[in-house]
Amino acid sequence: MATAGKVIKCRAAVAWEPNAPLVIEEIEVGPPQEGEIRIKIVASSLCHTEMFHLFEGKDKRGFPTVLGHEGAGVVESVGPGVTDFKPGDKVIPVSVAHCGECRFCKSPKTNLCERSWINDHVDLMSYPTTCFTCRGQPILQFTSTGTFSEYIVINQIYVVKIHDDAPLDRVCLLGCGIPTGYGAAVNTAGVTPGSVCAVFGLGAVGLAAVMGCKNAGASRIFAVDINEQKFEKAKVFGATDFLNPKAYDKPISEVLAELTNGGVDFSIECVGNPEVMRAALESCIKGWGVSVLVGYTDVDFSARPIQLISGKTWKGTLLGGYKIKDSLPKLVNDYMTGKIMVDEFITHKMDLEQINDIVSPKSNNSIRTNLLDDLMNCFHKSLFKFHSFIF
Ligand code: NAD
Ligand code: ZN
Ligand code: ZN
User: Which parts of the sequence belong to the Alcohol dehydrogenase-like N-terminal domain (predicted)?
Assistant: First the structure.
C-alpha cells in the first residue's frame, strides 16, 4: 500500500475530556511498530462501556482519548515480526488480548491474557502508549482499540482475522457486545437445556445473552428491563416472559421466585448497576442457581452471605469468556451460516458528524449505536456512517 511506513492523517472523534461532546478532528496515525498492525476501520459501533468512561466512571484519567472498541476493518500495513496478517486481510480488533503463550492463555479456564492492558490500566481504560496524535499531543486509544478513528494501530495479540466474505458493517458487532452476552450464557453461566433463565438489562449485551440462553435450550427466558420498549426486540431473540421491576411493589427477586417455584436456574446481569447485580443473584434458586455479572461499574457491590452459603454461585465474565483468536472467527462463521443473529441488533445509520446525538448522557441506557462506514463508502468516499440501535 502507498501509505505503508508513513504517518496517515485521518478523521477521528476525539474525547478531549470527560462529560463533554466528542470533537471530529484530523489526527495522525503513526506506522505500526514491532508486532503491530495498522487497520483501516470500516465499521464501528458503540458499547455502553464507552458511555461509562465518558460520563459515569469515578476515575477521570484516560483522556484525551478516541473511544470505540466494537470495530471491523481491513489491514493497511503490518510492522516487523507480524507474519499472521497481511494487507487486505479482513479483521476485528478486540479489547481483550490473546497472546497464546502466557499461562492464562494456555489455561482452558480463562480468556484473560497476562499481556492485556486490562491487568494494569483498567481505570485508565487504555494502555499509556498510543499511535494517535492530534494538535501536537498524544491521544489515547480507548481499551487499546480506539475504533472511532478511520485508522488505528494495535498489537497483533488483539487482532482476529475473519472470513474474506464477512460483511464488516455487521460483524463489527462481534467485537464486544454480542460475544459478551452470548458467551455469558453459553460459556460462563453454562445454561443447560430445559433450564429457566433471567436476563437483566436488554441492551445489545442483554439481548445477546437472551439469544445465548435460547440457543443453549432454555425452556423459559425472563427478560427484565425498566424500559418496556425493549421487550419486543427481546422476544425476537427468544425471551418468553417480560418483567419491568418498576411495575411491582416488591423486589423483582420475589416476583421471579413466585413465578418459578423458588427462583431461576441462571440469571445474567447486563446493566452495570450494583443493585441489579444483587437482585440478579437473589433471583436465583438456592442449591444450584448461577448468577453471572456482565455489567461494568467501578463501585462496590454487596450481598448477604446466605445467598452463597445456600448453594448459589456468583460469577463474572469478560467478553463472554471467549479466547478471541479461537472463537471470534467461529462466531463470524456462525453468523454467516445463520446460527446466530447479528443483523437484528441494527436499526439505522447515521454520519460521523452526528456522533454527539448518540454519545451523550441523554442517550444513556436507551440507545445503542453502531458507527458504520460501509465497504462501498469506505473505498469510494471515505465517509463514516452510523447505525444506531434503539431498542
Ligand atoms: P445498554 O446501555 O445498551 O443497555 C443497558 C440496559 O439496561 C438498557 O436497556 C436499560 O434500560 C437497562 N437498565 C437500566 N437500569 C436498569 C435496571 N435498574 N433494571 C433493569 N434494567 C435496567 O448497555 P450495553 O452496551 O448492552 O452494556 C450492558 C453492560 O455490559 C454495561 O454495563 C457495559 O459496560 C457492560 N459490558 C461488559 C462487558 C464485559 O466484558 N463484561 C462487555 C461489554 C459491555
Ligand atoms: Zn464493550
Ligand atoms: Zn496471553
Answer: 34-164
